[in-house]
Amino acid sequence: MNSSNAIAVIGPELPVIGERTACHAQDARKSSLQGRNEGVHLTYNPLWKLLIDRGMNKEDLRELTGLSASTIAKLGKGETVRTDVLLRICEALNCDLVDIAKCETYDKVTSASERTKTDG
Questions:
Q1: What percentage of the chain reaches a pLDDT higher than 70?
Q2: Residues 43-85: pLDDT tens digits?
Q3: In whole angstroms, what is the distance from residue 45 CA to residue 21 CA?
Q4: Cα 119–103–22 angle (5° rounding)?
């Protein structure tokens, strides 16, 4: 058998293909992302616009969805929330995810320097 086509297992989780482990592929993906100065995050601005269009506020949303005040505060700050929270909002407002959240790219370098200014 040709060693470059041989597949073996090192331990329970690391298959080897030829001389490379499966981790090499993950490392290559990570290194391609590390060189970038852009990141992606969710913004909930579409949610706030939707609430305004419907004559609602955050308290109305909290009552309608049964979400805690701290979860609504996280949304207001643009922080990460669980997917089931977003789905509860969609169900309560009878809308789709694209109606309440949007992916945005941001400059990691600028964002880090802005955090330093506000933290210090």
A1: 59
A2: 999 999 999 999 999 999 999 999 999 999 999 999 999 999 9
A3: 43
A4: 95
Amino acid, res. 108: K
Q: What's the CATH fold of domain 42-107?
A: 434 Repressor (Amino-terminal Domain) (1.10.260)
Look up residue 117 and give its amino acid.
K
Q: What is residue 101's DSSP assignment?
A: -
Query: How many residues are recorded in the chain?
Result: 120
**Is 0.70 topped by the overall pTM?**
no
> What is the 3-class SS of 73-98, one letter each residue?
HHHHCCCCCCHHHHHHHHHHHCCCHH
Tokens of 74: 């996280």
Distance CA 92, CA 39 (A): 30
pLDDT at 34: 55
